Amino acid sequence: MANLKASKKAIKVIAKKTKTNNDYTAVVKNNIKNCEKAILEGNGEKATEIFQKLQKNIDNAVSKGVIKKNTAARQKSRLSTKIKDLKK
Questions:
Q1: How many CB atoms within 10 Å of residue 69?
Q2: d(C-alpha 15, C-alpha 49), whole Å
Q3: Distances in whole angstroms, Cα of residue 50 to Cα of each of 18, 43, 44, 83
Q4: pLDDT tens across 6-45, in order?
Q5: Does the residue 21 lie in any domain?
Q6: Is pTM beyond 0.70 here?
Q7: Per the structure, how many domains does the chain have?
């Protein structure tokens, strides 16, 4: 256990940041799963709608430093390709 006042505060700050980061990643992962599910169902409109929200969520996570830039680009690219193939 931390003895110094600054160390005790740091523990609280780290816990808060960890929760925030986990919230960002959870939102992104859930939206990816929902988008994949819509694609498997063959529902292009629903997939497109979810994908638009997902792009915003991914970009927010990147700006907060939760997800790396290349990872975000890869995720968006893969899903957009699947949606385009679905519309053909």
A1: 11
A2: 33
A3: 26, 11, 10, 11
A4: 999 999 999 999 999 999 999 999 999 999 999 999 999 9
A5: no
A6: yes
A7: 1
Domain extent at residue 88 = 55-88
* Measured CA angle at 85 (ends 82, 86), to 5 deg: 85
How many whole angstroms separate alpha carbon 54 and alpha carbon 35?
A: 8
Count of residues in the chain: 88
**DSSP letters of 36-85?**
HHHHHHT-HHHHHHHHHHHHHHHHHHHHHTSS-HHHHHHHHHHHHHHHHH
Which residue in the block uniquely carries the two structure tokens 């292009």?
A: 44
Q: Is residue 30 one of the residues assigned to a domain?
A: no
Query: Does the residue 63 lie in any domain?
Result: yes
